[in-house]
Amino acid sequence: MQIFPPSEFIFPNPIEADPDGQGLICIGADLSPSTLFEAYSNGLFPWFSENDPICWWSPEPRCIIRPQDYQPSKSLIRTMKKMDYKITVNQAFETVIRACSLPRSYADDTWISEEIIQAYCEMAAAGYGYSIEVWANDTVVGGLYGLNIGRGCFGESMFSTQTDVSKMAFYTLMLIGRENQLPWIDCQLVNDHLLSLGACTLSRHEYLKSLQDVIKQPPIDWKKYQDSVFSSKTIAQNARLIE
């Protein structure tokens, strides 16, 4: 992994900067790799609309999911066995983030601007990004992406163009989390969809305390996953990636 020079920006302590617990910590800075590294290492992430100033957030409470607690639904397992999609890791990061940036049926716009896309692609190129892709023939039909610092795994967004394929990517991420003994995967903001997948919450204080421990631990070895093509059918039958 690339070692970034120190960021020129120093982020405020989220707890001291946001006594009312609204989550918006500060506004400004940039999206350079060193700034993103500094922000995520201190429990912040960017979230803002295109053409607006960069806003940095640390919500109270924080939404996380513990990989060891995740249980795929029976309907998902049936679909994975029936359709037998191909699943890869870190093979098409830019394809996934661009697909995640497209407007959804329930919204006309997206926060994933070209500026965000370029910034996170730089993080991925430096070894701090991950993506999981679900393929139908030669087309990516679903997936997710995020960042990884040490044992800290930060989920960003997911997409699907076919039924259940984003859930297949999510299940794959949960298996990677289990195999690497990740204490949690950061889901950032609470929503009903994440809660339906088994997510829960930590107080901001608990999250920040845990974060400082996990980011100092050895990083995930993504190489052992990204050289393989996994079968959704095999994953559904064995509930693991690495034999």
UniProtKB/TrEMBL annotation:
Compartment(s) of residence: Cytoplasm
Catalytic activity: L-phenylalanyl-tRNA(Phe) + an N-terminal L-alpha-aminoacyl-[protein] = an N-terminal L-phenylalanyl-L-alpha-aminoacyl-[protein] + tRNA(Phe); N-terminal L-lysyl-[protein] + L-leucyl-tRNA(Leu) = N-terminal L-leucyl-L-lysyl-[protein] + tRNA(Leu) + H(+); N-terminal L-arginyl-[protein] + L-leucyl-tRNA(Leu) = N-terminal L-leucyl-L-arginyl-[protein] + tRNA(Leu) + H(+)
Gene3D superfamilies on file: Leucyl/phenylalanyl-tRNA-protein transferase, C-terminal domain, Leucyl/phenylalanyl-tRNA-protein transferase, N-terminal domain
One Gene Ontology cellular component annotation held by this UniProt entry: cytoplasm
UniProt keywords, alphabetically: Acyltransferase, Cytoplasm, Transferase
Stored Pfam families: Leu_Phe_trans
Gene Ontology terms for molecular function: leucyl-tRNA--protein transferase activity
Chief place of localization: cytoplasm
EC number: 2.3.2.6
Enzyme class: transferase
Biological process annotations from GO: protein catabolic process
Highest rank taxon of the organism: Bacteria
Functional description taken from the UniProt entry: Functions in the N-end rule pathway of protein degradation where it conjugates Leu, Phe and, less efficiently, Met from aminoacyl-tRNAs to the N-termini of proteins containing an N-terminal arginine or lysine.
Family: Belongs to the L/F-transferase family.
Protein name in UniProt: Leucyl/phenylalanyl-tRNA--protein transferase
Originating organism: Acinetobacter pragensis
Lineage: Bacteria, Pseudomonadati, Pseudomonadota, Gammaproteobacteria, Moraxellales
Gene coding for it: aat
